[in-house]
Every structure is written in structure tokens, then in C-alpha cells.
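Morning!

As promised:
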Amino acid sequence: MQAKNRDSFRNGTFFSIISASLKGISQVILIDNAISGLIILIAIMISSTSLGIIVLLSALLASVIGRFGGTDRTIVNQGLLGYNSVLTGIALFLNLEGDLRWVIALAGSAVAVFFTAAMMHVMRNSKVPVLTFPYIVLTWFLLLASYRLGRFQLTPSLVPQDLSHWQLHPEGTLNLMHGLINGVGQVYFQDTIWSGILILIGVFWAGWKLGLYAIIGTALAWITAYSLGAEVTLLNLGLYGYNAVLTIIAVAAVFDTKSRLAPLTGIIAAVLTIPITASIDTWLLPFGLPTLTMPFVLCTWLFLAARKVIPKL
Amino acid sequence: MQAKNRDSFRNGTFFSIISASLKGISQVILIDNAISGLIILIAIMISSTSLGIIVLLSALLASVIGRFGGTDRTIVNQGLLGYNSVLTGIALFLNLEGDLRWVIALAGSAVAVFFTAAMMHVMRNSKVPVLTFPYIVLTWFLLLASYRLGRFQLTPSLVPQDLSHWQLHPEGTLNLMHGLINGVGQVYFQDTIWSGILILIGVFWAGWKLGLYAIIGTALAWITAYSLGAEVTLLNLGLYGYNAVLTIIAVAAVFDTKSRLAPLTGIIAAVLTIPITASIDTWLLPFGLPTLTMPFVLCTWLFLAARKVIPKL
Amino acid sequence: MQAKNRDSFRNGTFFSIISASLKGISQVILIDNAISGLIILIAIMISSTSLGIIVLLSALLASVIGRFGGTDRTIVNQGLLGYNSVLTGIALFLNLEGDLRWVIALAGSAVAVFFTAAMMHVMRNSKVPVLTFPYIVLTWFLLLASYRLGRFQLTPSLVPQDLSHWQLHPEGTLNLMHGLINGVGQVYFQDTIWSGILILIGVFWAGWKLGLYAIIGTALAWITAYSLGAEVTLLNLGLYGYNAVLTIIAVAAVFDTKSRLAPLTGIIAAVLTIPITASIDTWLLPFGLPTLTMPFVLCTWLFLAARKVIPKL
């Protein structure tokens, strides 16, 4: 205990909070590396300064709450309380309008800290990680509140649609390069080439294997979604890709990957995200909500938990 | 064990079942006090005798099933098997019509006992209380059954609506006093001033602190909902208030409140019930279902579980 | 361990996989008996050869994955990894069209194995069985994917409907005999008399008590649904029956039935499936999805978990 205190004194609370916050940014893509977090923060900043500020503030908020709330230091320092806040901040900021948008995004990212802690407690026995579940559910709830609270203003792009009147329009001009790079960038809601490339550099910085899996994930997703007849607009925006990228990294490279077949399991899990993305898009149609990273969470949970019973996966 | 038997003999099974039933009524608002339960029962009786009878019968049913089903005596005697039955009985009785309404309400409150027991078992490791989750889910399911079973007759006030055609109508004349008192009364589905006041007296009887938190909860909810642009009709009916009342009592005064910051955490949790209420109202719009106490359950679970990981909350 | 190896050598891997697969078929109706499985396979074959092939391939796939994936032998050999695959294969094959239908049905049944394993892990502490939850959720998700992926072609019979325009049409001519036998046959999606009777024979083969409960279950369901005003077309198709059949077998005869009141609890649980079926039909109306065995899963979980707290159930 004393040694720990001395250590934290030496590093300085300030530095450790900054490091935890940058790791909170990198943990969105399952990376525990402050430099990667910094590169990704810059990637977001160059496409939108205000979004970058939200990302930084959300990550800082999470680290400060964790640190002064008495949470286990190793959890806070790895950024594990922060990534859900970062994503909640981004998603609320991008999908809301009006003067209260900054306040709601930051309040949401504070609540995301509590929700992440709550899920850690509830799931501690299952030995399966929380992933981005708290962010997804919280964002969906706060966005839907806008239909009953006048001060929550939703962007006009989120339109509830009746499934019985739904028509699939798969036609359009494919743009492979955009689709592939956006598949990585969309992990952080980025759909410009340069942000996508910078984020990929951040991933490679943390390990070439992670970067390679990110590329395999986005390519695999593109091919699978295209063969199954997905909408071209979604393919070009990378909206079928980011869940596969996260899933293959999680299942093949990050969590409990002792099995020789782990890379294959990662590929199967990544392919499965395509129909699951299509499906969650459909479930949410009547509510006009975005799918976010729910396909990643469901597919990753499925395979990580299955491994406890089918150990060779 | 022998001492226990002698004790139960002295009190008499009859008295202990009555006491457990009255506590089942008071546990709806998280109070373990038979006199409070009696005061609240009277509060309901003066607004509707038949509703009062349903409340009493539901509570008795739960105590009898628990007692003769072999459930741990302390659980039964604290009314912990009963409050979900009381609420299920009320909600079904008020939202159904026709001659089968009494039967369905009482059958529902019997099933609520089993559901509460099931949730106690499932959640025992999480050290987070069941709250009113069983009542909410059971009531939603039984109300929806009316669309496919001719003998279940829903009140015409529950109308499914298409979210894509939804328009918010926040205008109306505020009635602060009604809004505040109904915010407490709605815990028991009461929207008349005298019932609300009597229920508040029942809460104060169990402890001035609990009564004070109930008042803070309803006031906080009113202010938050008003500032966020909530519908005036809902404000006047207290429909934004009761979840905040329950949440602040649960988080700040009843469960695991060692932390010095517990009152502040309670306030944050109570404020969070407002967007969550708005959100669940929206989720349920296409099904025409009432929100019931789901915001209380979600917000309270969130903060109670978060406390296990962020201990200073 | 050695004895086990010798044993498995004696039986031969091939035979043990066949046996596990047939038990996977019988486990759909909670029976651990290869001959019953074979009888039921024949029952399905005589109504549709291709469906029978899907059933057999799904069951084999599950046994092979379990066996070579390193899962505990006793789980695999009892067919406990297989029944969700069998049902997923059937449901996808019957509700999809087009050339990819075979591939999707078999890929789905492979994923069902992983999902079943995952749920076994997550639920192992609760001491409540997984039942058919993985199959239901997976099938719902894969069917809904068809709205966004052109190559997934849904049968035209699954039509999303707006609850606000829903009208109940209970009229029609009752056919009691069809209703009762289909109530058993629908466990395997069969609605012809001979298949239903053969399936019932398969159940009786495993034990007269199980067969008797199946008959009580379908009769009880018919009477309850009829008295509550259910639609005649659904009654004739047995669509209110199969969940009650499964539930009464599970609660009264298969799981944790020490209590003297277990048969009564089974009856209550079976009756409860009727409003729950009606309710889930309603929840799913806007998505046009079939209810499958969700009422069975919910009612059985409810009573099995409640028994841990109310032991005399």
C-alpha cells in the first residue's frame, strides 16, 4: 500500500489521469496504449475540433470520477472506466442538436462511468468483459428521451420508420477504398479517409497484429456484406465494417486467445456481425435509432462465453 | 429454531400474516412498517374501495403463498414477497375492464409472488435488490395479452401509437401543488390530493428522513422535468415524480448508504429518472403500455451496482 | 478417465455421435432417448424429406462441434448441445426462401451450438437450464436480417403489422382433434395429424408419464386459450398448445420435481403460457416474427427459479 502511494506520488496524479484518459480513448478499440489514444484523438480533432474536445473531456471526466470515487487503481489506469464515456460523449454530441447538446453529452458520459462500473460488478462472475454495452444502451435511452422532452433535440437524420412500409434499396456505386477505411474509422464515428488512416496508424502503433486484424476485419465485413446483398450506401460509409473490426480484434487477439483455433473463431465471429448488424438495424427501424456497436458486443460475448464450454474455440 | 417456533406461536400465524401483508403494502415505497402500510391502505381505500380491496387481497395472497410455500420466514415477514403483488394487482385492476378483471388482477398478483421469488434467486449473487422489476414486466405482458385474447379487455386509454407520427405537445397550465403531491401519490397510482397527503403521512410515520427524501424527490423531479421541456399534463399528474421519489429513497436512504456522498448520489439518480422516464415512454409508445416504475428500477440498479466498484458513490 | 476412454472406444466415436445427434432431436421435447429421437425424425421425414435432412444435419453438426471442440462428454452425449441447433435449422429452413436457405439454416444451427454453450456458461450459477432460449433469439435475429440483406429471403407469410391497426378476429370453426394433436406436433413445427401422433409415440416411448403430461398439456392449453377468447385459427393449428406441452413436462416431470405439489405447479405454469403466448405474439406483431418457444422458456424459468425460494412449489 505504501509502495503504491509512493509510486502514485512519483508519477503524479495529474500525469496518471492524463495517461488513463488517453488509454480510455484507445480502449474503444480494445487497446491499452496512451500513445495510440493520442494518435486517435488527433485523428478525431482533424475532422472536428469540437468533437475532439468532447472526446478529451469525456475521457478526463471518467478518469477523475474513477480516481476520486475510490475505484481499483488498475481498472482506472488502464482506461477501462473511460471508453464507454468517450463513445457516449461522441454519440450524443453527433446525434443531438441545440444549445443543451454539450451539457447532455458530458452528463451522459458521466452516467456512462457509473453504468460501466455497475456492469463490471454484475458481470464479474461470468469472466466475460463488459465491452461497450453500457454506452450503447445509455445512448439509445438518452436519444429516445428527445421525443418527450422538448429540450433534447434530435438531428433530423434519425427518423423512425414503419417496418411494414420498409423497402430495401441496395443499388448504388461501390467505393471499395472508402468502404474499407471507413470500416476502421467508424469505430470512432469517422467517415473521412485521413481520420480512418490515422486511427489505423494508432492501432498499428499498439501492435502490428492488432493492425492486421483490423484490416482483415474490415475486408471480411465488406466481402460478406456485399455477398449477402447489403445496401451500397452503408457499405461505402463503412457501417458494416466497424463491428467486424472490433469483434475480430476481441475474439482473435485480445480476450482469452489460448486456443490454436482463435484466429478462425475470430473470423467466424466477424462474419456473424454482418447478419446481426442487418438485424439490429431492423429492430431499431421503428425507433429511428443507430445500431452503434451492439453487433460487436453480442457476437463477442457469444464467442467468449462459448469458449468456456467449448474450449478449443 | 425452537425459540422461533414459540415466538410465532405467541404472535399467532394470523397476526404475522396480517403484519406481513401490511408491510407488503408499505414495501412498495421501500418501507418495512405495518402501520405505514395501514395508513397507505386507508389512503387508497378513500379514493376507491374496490382498489383498496384488491390491494389487501393481493398482499394477503402473497403472504399466504410465501408462508405455506416454505419461504424463509424473515423474507415473508418483511413483506418482501408482497409488494410486487400489490402493484400488479393495482395495475391490472386499473388498466383492464370487464367481468374477468378481478380474477386477472388476483391471478396476476399470485404469479407476481413466483416471479419475485425467481428474481430473488437469480439476483442473489449480485447483492442488488429485485425492486419492482417482476411487477413491471408481468404487468406489461398481461396487458399486451389483451390484443390476442378476447376476454382480456384493455381500458381504452391505452392506445398504441406510431412513433413516426408522434408530436410532442408540451403546452398546458401548470399546477405545481397537484404535481408535487401526485408525484408521491402516483407510487400507488393515486392522483388525488388527499390520498397523496395520506401516503406522505404514512412515509413520515416510518421516519422523518424518508418523508423528507420523498418531498425532495418529487420537487427535484418537477424542476428537472420542467427545465427539460416535459409535457405539462404529465407534470400535473405527477407522472414524472414517483420514479424520482422511489429512486432517491432507495439510493440515498435505504440500500447500502454508508458513503458520505450517498445523498448526492441519490439526487443524481433521481434527476436521471427524468430522461429515462421520457425514454421508456417512447419505447412503449408503439405498444401503448404505461411506463410504471421501470425508470426507478433501472436508475436504482445502476447506482447500487456502481457503488460496488466506485465505493465513494 | 481410462474407463471412460475404453468405453468410448468400445462404442466407437461414430456410434456415439449418432446417438448424441438423435438425443439432440429428442431433447427438443426434453427427452434424453435416442430411439425417441429416431421416431421423431421419422415423423418429420414423412411430412417433409428436406426438413428431415435439415434436422439430421443440424443435430450431427452440433454433436461434431461439441465432440471435437472439447466440450464435456456427458453434455454432448445427452444431446444438450444439439436441440437448439435442430430447432434453429427447422425454423430458418421453414421461414426462409431462395437458394441460400440451406446454407443459412445450417450456418444458423452451427451458431446455435456456440450460443447454447455461451448460455450454459452464463447460467451455470443459477442452476436453471438454458432451455431453447438460444434458438429463439438467434432465429429472430437471423430472420430480421432479411430486411436489410437482399440474399436473405423471408417467406411472405411473415408480415410486420402495426399494433394500432390490429383487429382481433376470433371467429372460425373449431377442430378439437386437430388442435389437440397439433399442440404436440408443433413442438417440431408439424401440423399434420400423423406427424403429431408419431411424435406423441416418441414421447410415450421415453416414458408413459411424459406422454401423459404431453396430453394434459395440450388439453389444458386448448381449454384455457378457448375460455380466454383466443383466435380459432391458432387453436386449430395447435399454436397455443406446444408451449404448454413443453412447460408442463419441464416443470412437473423433468427439472427438480421433488415437491409433492410439482404436478400442480406444472399445471399453473402450463396455464400461464396462454396469456404469455398471446402477449409475445403482440410484442412481435410490428416485426412480423413468430413467437416460437419463448412462452415455454419464460414460464419454465419463472417456476424453476421460484422453487429455489419457495421450495414447496
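The CA atoms of residues 21 and 59 of chain B lie 5 Å apart.

Hope this helps with the figure draft.
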